[in-house]
Amino acid sequence: REAGALDELIEGINRKNVLGFLTDEGLLPNYAFPESAVRLRSVIWRRRKKPTDKRRYQTWSYDYTRPPASAISELAPAASFYAGGRKVEVDRLDLETSKPESWRFCARCNHAEPLGTGDRHDACPACDDADWSDPEQKLTMVQLRQVFARSSDRDSRIGDDQDQREPVQFLREVQVDVKDEDLGGAWVIQAREGPYGFEYLTRATFRDINFGAPSDQGPRVNIGGREAIRKGFQVCIQCGAVKKRKGDIEHTFTCPSRKDGAVEKVQDCLYLYREFSSEAMRILLPVTPSASRESLNSFLAAVNLGLRTRFGGKVDHLRFTLTSEPTPDDLIQRTYLVLFDTVPGGTGYIKELLTPPGASKEPPIVGVLEGALGRIQACDCAQSGCYRCVYAYRNSKDMDDTSANRASQMLRDLLDHRDQCERVDSLSQVSISSLLDSALEERFLETLRRMRSGGENAVLVPEVWNLKPCYRLTLGGRDWRVEPQRTADDVGVIVSIDFVLHPAFESHRPPIAVFLDGWTFHQGRIGHDLAQRQALLRSGRWDVWTLTWNDLDAALKPSAYDLPALPLDTVLGTEDLVVLL
């Protein structure tokens, strides 16, 4: 059966004309140009009916090509591919044209490098992170170029009268690696919510990685400050056969692992990647990486709307990805929305958006955002969101988290301060310390969501209380109202409180004043803070909690620190002791 399939493949290669070959390899323009297309070689076999036939099996081969951007998911191991009325499953990688490579990734930033010339660094060359040399940061990857699928004629057929497609979801991330020499100038606008910035990258390396299907089992790897279970793919490194969903591997006939007593050489965690370089723009947003998806998706939709208005139609070759960059103090990270050209090398569109005309002190991208705000405000949907303004079919999966009203708020905040636009060398130099307070507040709310009592998870939902946006926390059979930004002026001094926890139905319990202290703003006012909190305690009407960044890290990352000694038992009762995950 395999011999017949190989003969069929050889005949297919011989029949291919030279121009077609050069086009598929990316040497002549095609729809994957200038990247080489990824090829699927599908072999269909059928047992011959007549016992007198020279060969027992009849085979057919089909070739399909896909651009790498889509092939990294569509042609991934164990993925099903549909074409010509057939469904086949990718069951082998070509590890001859694409050898497995050892890479080392930084746990703190987006830097990564292959180890073909040796492991030369003790710390990350980009951010000097000491975890660079940890064994967990060394991963095996393969650049996808060719895959195979083998199936019987009967099993591969699908009917046109029913939809049998079963899409496989994968964990994909795009890393943006930028070198200092590729920074082409930046602009920053200090707005009310925080700094907005725009930076031209003459060249950035984009690394699109498929980490396998989402799973709750597998190695937990931290890459670029994002920790996740990255299961990868299980592949025989001798013949490229893929471990199927049932757990078995069908090795090729000539694979050494087929021999009796042979030990299978299986790479347990193999990751797929594609890599290209292009021009890009980094947009610094006044949010933290844990910010609500509404802010991020709404601003992205606004930029998309502005680009369609600016260029008079679709600009599908311009795409977005979200990335972050560590700050020197490591407390929070800068959040960037990266607009990049999917055509490797770039087409000049992005450079046009960041080249100020004449003596203008602001880049044209500011005018693009102004056009987007005008479209949103003039839309008939009255800022409720529709396909004439912020909605787009290619971002339909994020529609629930896209708000025309939120986009309008962020654009107005930016444009109201456009007169403060100034040129800087790099956005990496822009201070985002003003975001520390909001980042602490986001972490506190996330901590409340992760609380448990009596084996039950907490429930935290938004609500309006006393004409003010608040939250309701249900935990251990009790309800609490979580009120942000409260001022107490009845204790002798004016006290600004970050959060107040009100017992919803237990009037005999005092409310809890929660203070979230960051070192940047509180290092010079410790005495003042202590006097305010003592005034609350002396009144006898308040309990007081003071939480720092490390305390919240202890709740979100149990391995980082010991849990804070908070009086949870006296507040909720010893029978409902809260456990912070």
Describe the structure.
The protein contains 13 helices and 28 strands. A hairpin with a 2-residue loop joins strand 3 (80-83) and strand 4 (86-89). The model is unreliable at 558-581 (pLDDT under 50). Helix content is 22%, strand content 32%. The chain is an alpha+beta fold and 581 residues long. Helix 5 (293-311) crosses helix 7. The strands form 6 sheets. Strands 6, 7, 8, 10, 11, 12, 15, 16, 17, 18 and 19 form an 11-stranded mixed sheet that branches. Strands 22-23-24-25-26-27 form a 6-stranded mixed sheet, sandwiched between helices. A 4-stranded mixed sheet has the order 2-1-9-5. The two termini are 55 Å apart. It is globular, with a radius of gyration of 29 Å.
What's the helical proportion of residues?
Answer: 10-25%
User: Which class do the helix and strand fractions yield?
Assistant: alpha+beta
**Average pLDDT value?**
82
Shape descriptor: globular
Low-confidence stretches: 558-581
Distance between the termini: 55 Å
Strand portion: 25-35%
Number of strands: 28
Compute the gyration radius: what is it?
A: 29 Å
Q: How many H/I helical runs?
A: 13
- Main beta sheet: strand number and arrangement? 11 strands, mixed
Briefly say what this structure is:
This protein has 581 residues and is an alpha+beta fold.
Topology (elements, then pairings):
Blueprint: H1 2-15, H2 18-24, E1 38-47, E2 57-66, H3 68-74, E3 80-83, E4 86-89, E5 92-93, E6 101-105, E7 112-114, E8 138-143, E9 146-152, H4 153-156, E10 172-177, E11 183-190, E12 195-210, E13 220-223, E14 226-229, E15 233-236, E16 266-285, H5 293-311, E17 318-326, E18 333-341, H6 349-353, H7 364-378, H8 404-415, E19 422-424, H9 436-449, E20 451-453, E21 456-457, E22 459-465, E23 468-475, E24 478-488, E25 495-503, E26 512-517, H10 519-522, H11 526-539, E27 543-548, H12 549-556, H13 568-572, E28 579-580
Helix pairs in contact: 5-7, 5-8, 7-8, 9-12
